[in-house]
TrEMBL record:
UniProt cross-references to CDD domains, sorted A to Z: Rieske_RO_ferredoxin
Keyword Membrane: no
Keywords assigned by UniProt, alphabetized: 2Fe-2S, Iron, Iron-sulfur, Metal-binding
Name of the protein this chain belongs to: Rieske domain-containing protein
Domain Rieske positions: 1-96
């Protein structure tokens, strides 16, 4: 998926593994890594361009929000949860378990 060093602390980046059509958002929060689908479930925009506050990502288009740990939609207009992925750490590498 990517290297740990690619994801700055308290930040989010987009990665585009070939197994995922619209890419993944990979987050680094308080020393832990998380991954979700990158496309907002409300509008066709990459969440990796949004504002990350703790474990909440805010959509840059309409300001809706999601919990990056659970994928739950937290603020309207977003109502459909995000798909989340388990992140496996091996040395400096991060791998996302994709169904």
């Amino acid at each position: 998926m990517c290297r740990k060093a690619d994801v700055p602390s308290e930040s989010v980046i987009q990665v585009c593994p070939k197994e995922v059509e619209d890419g993944l958002a990979v987050y680094h929060v308080e020393g832990k890594f998380y991954a979700t689908e990158d496309l907002c479930t409300h509008g066709m925009v990459a969440l990796s361009g949004g504002d990350l506050q703790g474990t909440t990502i805010f959509c840059p288009l309409h300001g809706g929000a999601f919990d990056i740990c659970t994928g739950d939609a937290l603020e309207k207009p977003c109502t459909v949860p995000l798909k989340t992925y388990r992140v496996i750490e091996e040395g400096d590498a991060l791998f996302g378990l994709i169904d």
